[in-house]
Amino acid sequence: MTAIGPxxxxxxxxxxxxxxxxxxxxSAPPLLLVHGGRDHCRNWDWVAAALRDEYHVIAPDLRGHxxxxxxxxxxxTMASYIYDLAQLIHQQELAPVSIVAHSLGGDIxxxxxxxxxxxxxxxxxxxxxGPPPRPPGTKPRRSIDERMRAWIDEQRSLSGxxxxxxxxxEDALRRMQEENPHLSAEQARHLTQHxxxxxxxxxxxxxxxxxxxxxxxxxxxxxxxxxxxxxxxxPTLLIHGKESWATDPTEDGRSRYxxxxxxLGVEGAGHWVHHDRLDLFLRAVRDFLS
Length: 290
Hints:
Blueprint: E1 7-13, E2 16-22, E3 30-34, H1 45-51, E4 56-60, H2 78-91, E5 97-102, H3 104-115, E6 120-126, H4 144-159, H5 169-179, H6 185-195, E7 196-198, E8 204-206, H7 222-231, E9 236-241, E10 261-266, H8 273-276, H9 278-289
């Protein structure tokens, strides 16, 4: 008999209707799976299916992604992403929770864990902690007026940009495979089918809001982010793919800001380690979470 898939659920945060999937087993320890930018919660299906008997697995769609609502203003801030995560954990009474997060999701999860260190039991981050603090006395590359002008120009540009339309699922599938050549045909098709909506004219477009591409002109400083890393009380596993553009957090010094961090570099993997080397990833995560 084929195992039943996850149940779709909804919660509200800052008046936005946000979506998540629940893989059941509510009596087991809670485990949150948080996806990255331009992705969706069903990208975790293989990980969730493998861990659902051991954990109560929940995977949210970030605002502006998947089946979650888009911001009416087209403005996506890190503070709002963190608030959404805090609301889900608070409303579902998940703390202390273990979190596995990828890319943008990792940035959100590490900052949340620094704000609420007692709420996180274990933390696994796949290429999602951003750059290290600048050397003392180093100024940002662009001043605030330059950042504001660039942000305004990007917003204006996107306001006139229509979501790309694909004539078929196969066309969208080819774009998915271009993005990550490590994906198997089965993986790429699954991610594409859950990542697109069909338009009224029969074409297909990705579910994410194009405005998520624009980073706000202001955010926490790198030093403030590193302070949050240093407040994380739980053991943390930092994973990176050795064929990715991301750097090794041991070599560039980021791992030293964490109280209890282990670093795992994975051969034969790019940015999506949990897709590229699933079996190895699951073994590492199981060992770490237990």
